[in-house]
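Final report, Chapter 2: Outcomes

The project's central promise was a pipeline that accepts a single protein chain and returns its three-dimensional structure in a standardized token representation, suitable for archiving and comparison. That pipeline is now operational. To close this chapter, we reproduce one record exactly as it appears in the project archive, with the input sequence first and the structure output second.
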Amino acid sequence: MAGSIRVKLFGVSFFRTLSGRFLVLTVVFVMLAEVMIFVPSVARFRQDYIMSRLERAQIASLALLATDGMIDPQLESELLANAEVYNVVLRRDEVRQLVLSSPIPAPIHRTYDMRDPSAWELIRDAIACLLDPQERIIRVIGAPVREAGLLIEITMSTAPLRAAMIEYGLRILALSALISVVTAALLFLAVRRLLVAPIRRVVAHMTAYAEAPEDVRRVIEPRSDILEVREAEEALRSLQQQLTAALRQRERLAQLGGAVARISHDLRNILTSAQLFADRMEASADPAVQRAAPKLVSSISRAVTLCESTLAFGKAEEPPPRLTRFLLAPLIAEVVESEQMAAGQNVRFVIDVPKTLSIRADHEQLHRVLTNLVRNARQAIEATGRAGTITISAGEEDEGWWIRIQDTGPGLPMRVREHLFEPFQSGSRKGGAGLGLAIAAELVRGHGGRLELARSDESGTEFVLHLPRDLGAGDG
């Protein structure tokens, strides 16, 4: 029982392979080609069979004419039997003459003219003969050999003709099957050698590389002489080299990050102690100390904030967003309300969001993203000491939703725009760690969307947040 199951499973798995399917397709296509050859071949065989009977009948009739019609009835029967016909009519000099004759066992079923038949007529008549198992008597008209008359007619039975056609057809089919098997076997071996083997080599390299991607020795070396396979090997080698380099870079960054985290942890403790002493210095009666103490406290506070931000970013493992449907206007109103409390009189907020606009996102993560963007805009305006406006608008499009945050601040410096969403790179605000936009962009990417800088110049800065529509959830 187990053996039969294994055989069945092997058969199923074999026909799911490239070589197995190619073998089956080869056999099918060769058999189709042989069938296309078989029908004309059988039709040709029928034509040759009938023409040979016409020639035999003509020879028999010429033997009778050579004796001036004086022939023994037994010899006449032998001539007709040898020609496998019942009657022979030879037309010479516009005179139709019944040369040889014998009793016909049945009425004549049909007459065939073999003097100039078309290919379609030969194929049609051959198929009709094969499909009709009943013995028929047919009349055949042909042209005499070597112009020995105008035409010759014979009557004959279809039974011997059909039997000979079947025997010939079986031989053709057997030969076709043999050709199909041999051709399929040769093509099967060729495909395994030229195509399947290189593909398996590529797969083996991929498997070996996956086990130790940091090992350069496992990077594939293109050597196939098949153009398409070699292109695949070269593309795989390029991918493996890039991945190996990225893994090494990631490992170095991870080690560096661990070192930075340890340094930041120890530095934070040191700075915390220094901050305590600085706080006490503020109570000193010395005017010089009183003037320097606030600056010292501010510098130490920024250093502590930078250490804490670095540690938080290193430990951050954002969970995947929990997508829910909610109205966007209340969320933006909540963000603006919290920022208005921290903003001065010079900052004005404008909200242009439809009250019925509903989006699908993670409520908490989107709150963090918008808070970060609005806070950056507020701080940019406050840094100028002039009045400014923050405009928050949103809308819906075919692909999803967009949220735009605009401010009338001074714009971002060119050096900041080049590394805007990279951690520790984009902080343009004095004392900033440069992590806010990096975290915001990461949260938006988790939604499958994107956060982009649409504009930043002397008239202000504009960020656009794109969130895709999740059609799979039925919210389209």
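Archive annotation: DSSP finds eleven helices and twelve strands in the chain.
This record, like all others produced under the grant, will remain available to the consortium after the project formally closes.
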